[in-house]
Amino acid sequence: MYFAQLAVNGLVQGLVISLAAMSITLVFGIVRFPNAATGDVMTVGAFSGLVVYPMTGSLLASGIFAVIVTAAVALISHLLVFRRLAGRSVVALLVASIGVGFVLRSIMGLVFGHQPMVFSMPLSRPYRIGGLAINPLDLQLALLAAVMLALAFAVLHLTPIGRQMRAVADNPSLARVSGIRSGRVLAALWVLAGAIAGAGGVMLGVKTVVNPEMGWDMLMPAFAAAIFGGIGSPAGALLAGLILGVVQEMSTPFVGFTYKIALSFAIMLVVLLRRPTGLLGRIEGVR
Amino acid sequence: MLAYLIFALTIGGIYALLALSLNLIWGGIGLVNLGLVGFFALGAYASALLTGAGLPVLFGWGGAIVVGAIAGLVVTLATTRLRDDYLAIVTLGLAEVIRLVALNERWLTNGSDGISGIQAPMKSALGNQGFNLFYLALVSVIVLVVWLALRRLDRSPYGRAMKAIREDQELAGFAGKNVLGFKVQAFAVSAALAGLAGALYAHFQSYISPDHFQPLITIYIFLAVAAGGVGRPAGGVLGAYVVVFFLELTRFLPDLVPWLAPAQFAACREILVGLSLILVLRFRPQGLLPEQIVPAPKS
């Protein structure tokens, strides 16, 4: 029962990792570099949510506001930085993303300071379902994540721009010769990736504390889940994030609270060595 | 003031070593180490623990070099078959794990309290001022030697092969170069250099704790190498000294802008550092000292 409880707690944690990993995997699959600013975009989302929450008292409203802000931040980073570096090496883009993340983190530090802040949520009695305690807040968060995920998958699979995104991810040159306008596709991609990261940021902020470093600390599990799920595969990222979240939570009795992050690193190494395509991905071998 | 200058120059030298380490793989072979600060910490802790166990300082430094190289080998061997950006992600994770171990394994690292009383070589003989001067000279000589060695490497057939791999791995492979071998060797040497820099830092400060090894340092070094000139050892060294002087000079500015709290001022400084990194990448990717490709001698 204890482990079942841990697993349930892990699912919510896992959804946060899933959202972060999806944001990474979308960018990695289409623009082809690991965006190290993803974690810091999440931080921006958490702070934006935190600003709105006391005014409205609604988690949904804070979530929506955060998602709008982070979508805008991601789009701006694309327009001002990443688009301008297109055609340069992967390393240049990666280093630039570190710079972008660092600037975002510092701005959060400048505006909000380094004292950890919390969403002051009303306490509520957990639902009891067959001996499992389920926090209503967790349910709300899971719902928020589910809405975001449903939106993301709907955009990817049901809209023309989503189909074009997947075409670019699959084969950029083929997409170009079939007349896909990559400028619009890329802008839409960054909006989507930013929105997903923002939702993850709000969730993380509600579950833990909000401080400028929170997103950076999330980067490692997020990369691990993106690789585990298979780079370029949003469904894989979702699945891998949930698995990592549950595994992390269920391992705490054995490895302790502190080495949860190390665990995702270990899983990532094993995946890279044994099955670099991940769960649902394709290999990005040495070209 | 003089003591302060000596301090800044010594830290500049240590950062210059880190910049040389990063430049060796970034400029040399087109890889990056996002966990540079982890290797730096590894060297610092290795040397602090070895000398703490009673070994002479030189053994500690040797140990730091070996531990750094081994960590570098482990990381590269885990990602041999994959695109280079995976290596960068793994280094990031490794640095995170190193920080966790330093923070939590109290029996080894004394946790967040850190290790104090690290041997300062010759300090008893030289006195405080003398030691600082001696150490500055020592660090500077090491930077000079490493710089000359890497510059020599750059102009050797080995260096040319590295840059060929950076530009086009497949072509270099077709030309019979052992791409994987070059990558593993370059990364191991680079990691060893970062370890050495860590050891020098530990014995200079005589106190280290996980707080000393913030990801911030990695960003400073990336800025130093990017601004100095990727692919040119002199560029990295110049960049490192420039970055340290920028950081140290702006330390005195808060008095001039009293309306900002010190923490806010630090944040502004960090924003400037991050922005400079982005601007350099965007507008002057070749840096202050652009890379020189010396043609191979005619044989």
UniProtKB/TrEMBL annotation, chain A:
GO terms for cellular component: plasma membrane. It is a multi-pass membrane protein. Keywords: Amino-acid transport, Cell inner membrane, Cell membrane, Membrane, Transmembrane, Transmembrane helix, Transport. Pfam families: BPD_transp_2 (PF02653). GO terms for molecular function: L-isoleucine transmembrane transporter activity; L-leucine transmembrane transporter activity; L-phenylalanine transmembrane transporter activity; L-valine transmembrane transporter activity. GO terms for biological process: D-alanine transmembrane transport; L-alanine transport; L-isoleucine import across plasma membrane. Its main location: membrane. CDD domains: TM_PBP1_LivH_like. The chain crosses the membrane at residues 6-29, 59-82, 89-112, 132-156, 185-206, 218-247, 254-273. It is found in: Cell membrane. The keyword Iron does not apply. InterPro entries: ABC_transp_permease, BCAA_transport_permease. Belongs to the binding-protein-dependent transport system permease family. LivHM subfamily. This is Inner-membrane translocator. It comes from Nitratireductor indicus C115.
From TrEMBL, chain B:
GO terms for molecular function: branched-chain amino acid transmembrane transporter activity. Its main location: membrane. It comes from the Bacteria. The keyword Lyase does not apply. InterPro entries: ABC_transp_permease, LivM-like. Keywords: Cell membrane, Membrane, Transmembrane, Transmembrane helix. One of its GO terms (cellular component) is plasma membrane. It is found in: Cell membrane. It is a multi-pass membrane protein. The chain crosses the membrane at residues 6-26, 31-52, 58-79, 86-103, 131-150, 186-204, 216-247. Pfam families: BPD_transp_2 (PF02653). This is ABC transporter. It comes from Nitratireductor indicus C115.
